[in-house]
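Explain this fold:

***
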Amino acid sequence: MEQVSATRTELLARRAQIDLANRGRDLLNEKRDQLLEEFRRVADVVLGGTDALERSAAEGRRLLTIAEAGDGPEAVLSAAVATRGEIPLEASTTSIMGVRIARIDHQPVGRPRTGRGYSLAGTGPRIDAVAEAYEGQLDLVLEVATTEIRLRRLAEEIGKTTRRVNALEFVVIPRLIGESKWIQSVLEERERQDHFRLKRVKEHKARAHRRNRP
C-alpha cells in the first residue's frame, strides 16, 4: 500500500474504479455467455456435418467400388482425370459480439453430366453416380471446414474473454477493494486522532482558563 495515497480523493477514485471494474466484468460475462451459446450452436452444426461427411464418404467408396467392378478401373480413372477442375472460393468475415470471424463461401460443386469434362459415350450411369457422390462430398467438406474455422475462432475468443473476467474477478477488483478499505481505515484513524487531539486542546484551554480566573 506504500504507493497509495490515503486521501479522500483517492478513496473516491478507488470506489469509481471498483464500480467500473464490476460493470466491465458483467459486460464480459454477458459477452462470454453469448459466445458460448453461439459456440454450442456451431458445435452442433460441425458434429452434424461430420456425421454427414462420414456417411457421404462411405457411400462414395461403395459407388466407386461398383463402378470399378462394372466399368473397369481404367475407365473410372480416365473420367476422374477428365473432370478435374478448380473450385472458386470467396473469403469474407462476419461479426459476433464484436468478434471478427472468417467464413468461406462457394458455389455448389455439383455439375451436370455434360459439364464434367469426360466422354459421355465412354461412361455410364455408374461413373455418373460416383461423380455426383464425390461432388456432394466436396460440398460437405467445404461446409464443415467453414464451420470448424468459426468454432476455433469462437473457442479462442471465449478463452480470452474468460481470462479477462478472471483477471477482473480475482485480481483487479480484490486489489481495488483492499486499497479502498486500507484508505478508509487510515482516514478513520486520522479522524479519531484529530478528534482526540482536539479534545486534548479543549481540555488544556479549559484548565488554563480555570487557573487564570480571579
User: Anything to note?
Assistant: The chain has a mean pLDDT of 88. The chain is about 75% helix and 5% strand. The CA atoms of residues 139 and 181 lie 62 Å apart. The longest strand covers residues 89-96.
